[in-house]
Please model this.
Amino acid sequence: MHDVLLVPGDTPLAAWREIYRGAGMRLAATAAGPIAASAAAVERILGRGEPVYGINTGFGKLASVRIEAADLATLQRNIVLSHAAGTGEPSPAAIVRLMMALKLASLAQGASGVRPATIAQLESMLRAGLIPVVPAQGSVGASGDLAPLAHMAAAMTGVGEIEVGGVRQPAESALRAAGLTPLALGPKEGLALLNGTQFSTANALAGLFEAERLFQTALVTGALSTEAAKGSDTPFDDRIHRLRRQPGQIAAAAALRNLMAGSAIRASHLKADERVQDPYCLRCQPQVMGAALDVLRQAAATLGHEANGVSDNPLIFAETDEALSGGNFHAEPVAFAADMIAMTVCEIGSLAERRVAMLVDPALSGLPAFLTPKPGLNSGFMIPQVTAAALVSENKQRAYPASVDSIPTSANQEDHVSMAAHGAARLLPMTRNATAVVGIELLAAVQGCDFHRPLTSSAALEAVRAQLRERTPTLDEDRYFHPDMEAANALVRSGQVVAAAGLDLPGVA
Model:
């Protein structure tokens, strides 16, 4: 993959998606001037001898404690070490890497007061594949993601652990092996590194990107299920959706129409079909999936702003040599976006499970019970549907909004927090659950279409069927089902289902 250019304050969402998927990155040369000016402003502010939060004072509830000049370097190191108090399993390397890139782009806007050498350390670690080991738990999403970012900052100074090529090493050893010297922090730099919303934002962006792929794949499997049940494409007629004027609904209906265009299965029951209306899980796909798309796009807009924003504190304004203390570290926008993504992921999986349940029920689908030629002797898709139901139920429990909760911290100085970190961190597990549900639907829908042979579906859907059948044969007799599910799940996760369909399916950006 090519290197993504990080333009501080103006990096598109597509670039963050590429970084999440593994692309390299480089900082735009235009960042050098603002970075140097911001660092110089901190020196001038210090020279005035006035107390300035985060530069020569304590932190949080200790902001009134003045720190002498001789102790400023110790102050910055102490805040990093003391705040590196995360717990739980390490965050996925892809999340930490994205977090580092987000922090790099934020600091490079010249509002954080860090030196060029500090920027260079972060950029060099990214280029060398040095990923700090960052425990996944410990942030409440206000005063920034303090604990996770402190673990990142500690690794930059040679403390803690760094993962290199999947192997954990002592941070100092990993830095030196890559030709880097552990960073000595200057005034304001410890606070600038560990203050901000980059951990929450990285997790939310990862959830968004996985939800986008999930959404697109569920449109494909939904069209396949419609074919398997010999459902009608009339509910996808553009005239219906134009009257409602919901943009996502219009886009989802168009995608479903395109996916089914030219289907011989659909042509076989255009006339003399005794059924008047399909179940909602088929008929209302544009309404449900379209609403999900609109919400995902709204979340994408919020996260795009956050990814390009500056969220540490205090902020340095070099043109006036001011350090202004505010609250950009409060991650409420990210928390709301994460909650929105969680609800859409839950609903996409829920609708897909209902289609699986419909397909296995002969009274609704017109297909053999549980999609097996010999029901009774064989159980067919009986338990895969149960698995899908279990995963959907788990996602329902996880979808409760995190942003409505708050708990005071720092002796009530930080008396309202966003809970964005764990609200965002739940998104990848939720997308994994929903992806497995859509994988089960892929298997069930293709199995259902097999009963209609020699009739074929559209060219797009036949390409998807062929892709699955290269990996899993038709289920004629019961067999060990788990490998089939894993194969389908892998196709969904990889984006190969969407690619095989060969259509420009709607996305979040």
Summary: DSSP finds 22 helices and nine strands in the chain. The first helix runs from residue 13 to 20. The longest strand covers residues 87-90.
